[in-house]
């Protein structure tokens, strides 16, 4: 199959981690026995505050790593829902290190790697968080680089973060296909100059910010065909 015209010349695929390769809801769902019906509300609020804190810290210039931000967001979510259980807090943080990959991820990465594409992760996560997640999912060997914002000391969507992919892989921006399920991340990567695919797992409407991605997929299984491999 020939690649879509927007993706001709792509020689590397770079993936956001949380929400794109790894299922964020799997963390709270892993403690569903303790949380009961509140697991979904906790998961949604935890994720919302986690992202909000990265943006606020980036704007204010008060960087703290993603492990700290994730713990602070969980503190807020548990307090909001009236859950005062320190043991459960620690359990949820431990579960975050073993976050589950989406089902199609291993086979998709294997297919891309077999065709000689460079593969990388570009994430807000700390190096230790990403090492734990990729090891748990058994996908670490597929990646040529696992890139953390800790290398530049600021969170997405700062342009320095997207520049890491070009610098570390030695590939021009247009030759990198960046994939994220986070719409703001996909739009921002495109504005930086990367060739970008929005992995719209939840059927969300498009953003109203510049610039729209080059394409949209529902999950990663269709990526190899889109690239013509």
How would you characterize this protein structure?
The chain is an alpha/beta fold. It folds into two domains: 5-22 and 100-226, HAD superfamily/HAD-like (Rossmann fold), CATH 3.40.50; 25-97, Orthogonal Bundle (DNA polymerase, domain 1), CATH 1.10.150. It has helices at residues 25-29, 32-35, 39-60, 66-80, 86-97, 105-114, 127-137, 159-169, 183-192, 223-226, and strands at residues 12-15, 118-123, 145-148, 176-180, 195-199, 215-217. A six-stranded parallel beta sheet has the order 3-2-1-4-5-6, sandwiched between helices. Strand 4 (176-180), helix 9 and strand 5 (195-199) form a beta-alpha-beta unit. Helix 3 (39-60) crosses helix 4. The longest helix has 22 residues, at 39-60. The model has no long low-confidence stretch (mean pLDDT 97).
User: SSE string, helix = H, strand = E?
Assistant: EHHHHHHEHEHEHEEH
**Shape, per Cα inertia axes:** globular
Query: What summary fits the major beta sheet?
Result: 6 strands, parallel
CATH class of the largest domain: Alpha Beta
The first-to-last residue Cα distance is 7 Å
Radius of gyration: 17 Å
Number of helices: 10
What is the tally of beta strands? 6
Spatial ordering of strands, largest sheet:
3-2-1-4-5-6
Structural class: alpha/beta
Helical percentage: 40-55%
Please indicate the percent range of residues in DSSP E strands (runs of 2 or more). 5-15%
Which regions have little confidence, pLDDT < 50, spanning 5+ residues?
none
The name of the CATH superfamily of the largest domain reads HAD superfamily/HAD-like
Any idea of the CATH topology of the largest domain? Rossmann fold
CATH hierarchy: architecture of the largest domain:
3-Layer(aba) Sandwich
pLDDT average, as an integer?
97
Integer count of domains = 2
